[in-house]
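Reopening: RNA helicase still failing for me.
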Amino acid sequence: MYIEFNDIGRLIGKGGIKIRALQDESNAKINIDRQSVNSEGQTAVRLIGTREAQQQAKSLIEELFTDKNNAPQEKQQKERWAALPPMIKNFYKEDPAVASMSKERVAAIRRSNNNIEVKHVFDNEETSELTIPNPVETFEQAFKDYPDILQEIQKQGFTNPSPIQCQAWPILLSVIPREERPGPNVLVMAPTRELALQIEKEVAKYSYHGIKAVCVYGGGSRKAQIDIVTKGVQIVIATPGRLNDLVQANILNVTGVTYLILDEADRMLDMGFEPQIRKTLLGVRPDRQTVMTSATWPQGVRRLAQSYMKNPLQVFVGSLDLAAVHTVLQRIYLIDEDEKTDMMHQFFREMGPQDKVIIFFGKKAKVDDVSSDLAIANIDCQSIHGDREQQDREQALEDLKTGTVQILLATDVASRGIDIEDITYVLLDFFLVSRKVNQIDTILKLYKT
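Support: Ran it again with your exact input. Result attached.
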């Protein structure tokens, strides 16, 4: 990347304190190459480290100079946000039974729900004065003032809140009349098309006062998505790339967004979407309600929370550290490389008629190679990775869900948010998968119920 020559001192900081801090936070080495200058007279900055570290360092440097360049625009921004209708928060009315809970009762409920923990992410004077809502034990306690929503929840067969829901619902509930706002009211950002489409599918199950939702993602018909967006929707579910495309083209207006959800935030950062996320959030009102979900709690997610959330609460079940799922039998096999294919074929032959398996690979080419080998061996399977057409990816998941095939070969594009309840086996690291966190998250998701 390149920076203005006059900004070198700002990047280095007094005695090198700033550049050292940026290197520590990003885990990337930052070298300023004063001898390398582009045609615009800008100086080259070399970022050394993993792809994730380089992307994080680049975002931090851009943020450093964005703050400087945006200073004269602060007044204009304040006037822009002041023109929007006021946002009503804290409309949640605590049920009397919930409000009267003793500290011992609250602790017991959290403990019985897989050791729920809730705390302020950042400690300061403001957070010390904020009250953390008590957990609810029933949906009626959370939605007693909203019978239409309660009825929709009951239609889906839900009887009691899950452990995360019993503490999260009292925190998350807030609203503003949608007829007063331009553009969508709710924006959900997800890392992959598959997860975005699955969220849209879940939203479609709930009918409430004519609220409309649309899913916008790369690989889908841009024209069709634009047609739906321009007709007016209240909920937009999007991948960062396509969302940023529509916002920059002035097709999608996000100034009216009052409820922002960053789903699988850690995965979006892993995929290098931080610049698109930050660019999009510049157009969203600062007093929005923001929710981030994440399987892990890395420095990048913490930094996003610090930048775009005010006095956030963190709710998690059990521990933030990765741990074994005790309801899943886990086995480790040490196999010579030249024996893996034979073992895989033997595994497939021993599968029962109702069994289903997802096998993760580290490279797209390996998925294609194994898929071809299985076809030659007359073993039916489906495959999913980033280079396949969107309709083929959707068909692959549908075939596994319906039982048309029992075997799905995948890269980490299928590692988050894929909801297939009857998976019986997940094979990890079969051909040297380099990253395991996402696949472990898949096991957690598949067996969470």
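The first strand starts at residue 2 and ends at 3. If you still see a failure, please send the error message rather than a screenshot.
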